[in-house]
UniProtKB/TrEMBL annotation, chain A:
Native organism: Natronorubrum halalkaliphilum
Keyword Secreted: no
The UniProt record lists the keyword Transmembrane: yes
Domain of life per record: Archaea
The protein's name in its UniProt record: NADH-quinone oxidoreductase subunit H
Pfam families named among the record's database cross-references: NADHdh (PF00146)
GO molecular function: NADH dehydrogenase activity
TrEMBL record, chain B:
Major location (coarse): membrane
Annotated compartments: Membrane
InterPro entries reported in the protein's UniProt record: NADH_UbQ/plastoQ_OxRdtase_su3, NDAH_ubi_oxred_su3_sf
GO cellular component: NADH dehydrogenase complex
Keywords: Membrane, Transmembrane, Transmembrane helix, Transport
Record bears the keyword RNA-binding: no
GO molecular function term, any single one: NADH dehydrogenase (ubiquinone) activity
Family the entry assigns: Belongs to the complex I subunit 3 family.
Origin superkingdom: Archaea
Gene3D superfamilies, sorted: NADH:ubiquinone/plastoquinone oxidoreductase, chain 3 (1.20.58.1610)
Species for this entry: Natronorubrum halalkaliphilum
This protein's name: NAD(P)H-quinone oxidoreductase subunit 3
Pfam family, one: Oxidored_q4
Species classification: Archaea, Methanobacteriati, Methanobacteriota, Stenosarchaea group, Halobacteria
Length: 364, 137
């Protein structure tokens, strides 16, 4: 146990990142700074579109299929195999809607909000090691960066809520921000308890530290994934994450029974698509953080080239869990949400951090 | 390669994707201007009053509390990073590593307890709401 959680204290610089690999493969690295920039752009383009494709599958298709399965109904099944072509049909349908902008809207902010929400979610994926060499950047402050970037979405939601000049939007935006800030701290503090084990904020170091063996179980070695090392932190992080991305049971920012659609009430056409895209990207970003710091990142049985497969399985598992909760768990009230966040999770997350620190200190 | 170049490249892609979608939508969508269409949505009713309504003070209270704790987590980051190295080196005792942080978190938890007692993390109710409270607790 003691040896298993002993991490690599040094920062590791050997990881070959995607831009370098692309520079190598295409020969772009011979062209100096320009080639380097182009390789970085190509790599970012691949990562961005991978995430866009996942959102495309999740939004119009997987979400409906999963909800239908949970509620014993039949979902999209007419177009293509298992209704998969609904993704194309829905994209065209959504993008070809008329853009209706309310007269009272606060223009620059109203237009910027969807872009802020979508772009901030996408930026978080820059530091996530997805396995099979798909890893865009690996700064030493990786974990702090990803929390910081994910937090920017709150500004987008506030802008959307305020600039729409709609009472529902205003309340929805306020609720979204109150929720985000209430659960941001438990999220970050629980994330810190992982940093105590790994001794680094760098994503590749955190993943590598989880490759050690926790307990040998016959022929299989159970890896020291932090979800197994500290299951309490894992559960806390899951709950805080669901609140952070505004999924059930914490989805009152857009509770249709109370405030219509919350901050996105006045958004139509491509703006609506962008806000939705941002929300789905946030679910996947939450899943990616969980997979990276608690579930060993791209680790899994088989050769290392399968990393991306394991990684995608892990983040889709988190997505499936959000949809399961959506079908199974009732929504909490806004006052309950504030109390669960500030009185429950905050205190528990600090208890977890201090206990982890004390235990690591005593057994090392 | 510099990590931040790659992050900057993703930021560029993160802007190109929304703008690309907006361009596609601009080409596809119809424009049918009607005066009443652009009115503020209020469940089909004619909107009443201004839209900058008064709202619960609670949002302000939790935002203030958030500032305090968010800055605290920023201070916790460097401590958490060096913690393991400090424990493994025998130069300092565990109490010296853990003690200051316990004190720091302790002071903030006292602050939280104070806010808790004053009802800052409790959803504020108007006197009328409190009188007619039928919640099942």
């Amino acid at each position: 146990m003691v040896e298993a959680i002993t991490p690599i204290a040094l920062q590791n610089d050997e990881t070959i990142l995607l831009p370098e690999r692309i520079g190598d493969l295409t020969g772009l690295d011979q062209f100096g700074v320009g080639g380097e920039l182009l390789a970085a752009f190509l790599a970012a383009f691949i990562v961005g579109n991978l995430m866009l494709a996942m959102t495309g599958v999740a939004g119009p298709w997987a979400k409906r299929k999963i909800t239908a399965a949970f509620t014993d109904r039949i979902a999209v099944n007419r177009l293509g195999p298992a209704g998969l072509f609904i993704i194309v049909a829905d994209s065209v349908r959504l993008l070809s809607k008329e853009l209706v902008i309310p007269e009272q809207a606060d223009r620059p902010a109203y237009d910027l909000a969807p872009i802020v929400v979508a772009a901030s979610a996408l930026l978080g994926f820059a530091v996530i090691p997805m396995g099979s060499g798909i890893h865009l950047a690996d700064p030493e402050v990786g974990l702090a960066y990803v929390f910081a970037i994910a937090g920017i979405a709150s500004i987008g939601l506030m802008m959307a809520g305020y600039a729409s000049s709609n009472k529902y939007s205003l309340l929805g935006g306020l609720r979204a921000v109150a929720q985000n800030i209430a659960y941001e701290i438990p999220l970050v503090v629980t994330g810190l308890s992982v940093v105590i084990f790994a001794g680094s904020l760098q994503m590749s170091t955190i993943v590598e530290a989880q490759a050690a063996t926790l307990v040998p179980l016959g022929p299989i070695d159970i890896p020291a994934w932090y979800a197994l090392v500290n299951p309490f932190a894992f559960v806390l992080f899951l709950v805080a994450n669901f609140a952070e991305v505004g999924r059930n049971p914490f989805d009152m920012p857009e509770a249709p029974t109370e405030i219509v659609a919350g901050y996105q009430t006045e958004y139509s056409s491509v703006y609506f698509v962008l806000i939705y895209l941002g929300e789905f990207l946030h679910i996947f970003l939450g899943g990616a953080i969980i997979a990276t710091i608690f579930l060993g990142g791209p680790a899994g049985p088989g050769p290392a080239e399968l990393g991306i497969v394991w990684f995608l399985i892990k983040i889709w598992a988190v997505f499936l869990l959000t949809q399961w909760l959506r079908s199974a768990v009732p929504r909490v009230r806004i006052d309950q949400m504030i109390e669960i966040g500030w009185k429950g999770l905050l205190v528990l997350s600090f208890a977890n951090l201090l206990l982890t620190a004390a235990i690591v200190g005593l057994i090392t | 390669m510099n990590d931040w170049i790659a992050i900057g490249a993703l930021a560029l892609v993160g802007l190109l994707i929304p703008f690309g979608m907006m361009a596609v939508s601009y080409l596809l969508r119809p424009t049918v201007p009607e005066t009443s269409k652009r009115a503020t949505y209020e469940s089909g009713e004619i909107p009443t009053g201004g839209t900058r309504v008064r709202f619960n003070i609670q949002y302000y209270m939790v935002a203030l509390l958030f500032l305090v704790f968010d800055i605290e987590t920023v201070f916790l980051f460097p401590w958490a990073v060096v913690y393991l190295d400090a424990v493994e080196s025998d130069a300092i005792s565990l109490l010296e590593i853990l003690g200051p942080m316990l004190l720091f978190v302790g002071i903030l938890l006292v602050g939280l307890a104070w806010a808790w007692r004053n009802g800052a993390v409790q959803w504020a109710q108007t006197p009328r709401q409190a009188a007619t409270d039928t919640d099942r607790q």
